[in-house]
DNA sequence: GCGACAG
DNA sequence: ATCTTGTCGC
């Protein structure tokens, strides 16, 4: 996949204030529209793990039959600390590096983290989606921002709402004896389509297959 | 000022 | 995320 990202400026803020300005600027570019899963053929999953001060990024591309089409990985020294609300500034660099190497162009990308379920609507899924101009969805293991009632049975989705009561995502019980996952649209997807797509990719596991595989490979690559 | 707080 | 063994539940 060809690199079309004008890296450098907004990728490495020097202060939190600068990072917040970038998020507010990116918010203007945020687009939330339905994504027809029937027109999707390639789905990517992204994950990042760490070894000392090195970030290991992984992108796994599968088709709708859950067959692995491509896997790429890259390493990059981390330059930004982990600060809730600013995860993208820590992980986007190595993720973008992976996409520069990727030959396929996925129709939608699933992230391990939030989409718009974020204080400024700019979780890592939204952030990277804007940079790549590819539809994205956030699939997190815990809530960063917002409140929702706990789903009580497998398959139930409860609305995740912000302080104003606006729905920004869903808490979804994808499997028995597990914690609900947090689903939110990232970019060029919406609430309904992001939930539908994630459900379609579960394949019996807690996390959608692309994300599960990405996490699996990122861990295995360190052995 | 006191909690909450993706990976 | 990462440091780490066994263990409860399906």
UniProtKB/TrEMBL annotation:
The cofactor required is: Mg(2+)
The positions annotated for binding Mg(2+) are: 47, 112
The Enzyme Commission number assigned here is 3.1.21.7
Class of this enzyme: hydrolase
| Localization (cell) | Cytoplasm
Major subcellular site: cytoplasm
Any one GO molecular-function label of the UniProt entry? deoxyribonuclease V activity
Q: For site (Interaction with target DNA), what residue positions does UniProt give?
A: 82
Arranged from A to Z, the UniProt key words for this protein are:
Cytoplasm, DNA damage, DNA repair, Endonuclease, Hydrolase, Magnesium, Metal-binding, Nuclease
GO biological process terms, alphabetically, are: DNA repair
Q: Which Gene Ontology CC terms are recorded?
A: cytoplasm
Catalytic activities: Endonucleolytic cleavage at apurinic or apyrimidinic sites to products with a 5'-phosphate
Q: Name one Pfam family in it.
A: Endonuclease_5
Hey, which family's this protein in? Belongs to the endonuclease V family.
**Record's function text:** DNA repair enzyme involved in the repair of deaminated bases. Selectively cleaves double-stranded DNA at the second phosphodiester bond 3' to a deoxyinosine leaving behind the intact lesion on the nicked DNA.
Protein name per UniProt: Endonuclease V
> Which species is this UniProt entry from?
Fervidobacterium pennivorans (strain DSM 9078 / Ven5)
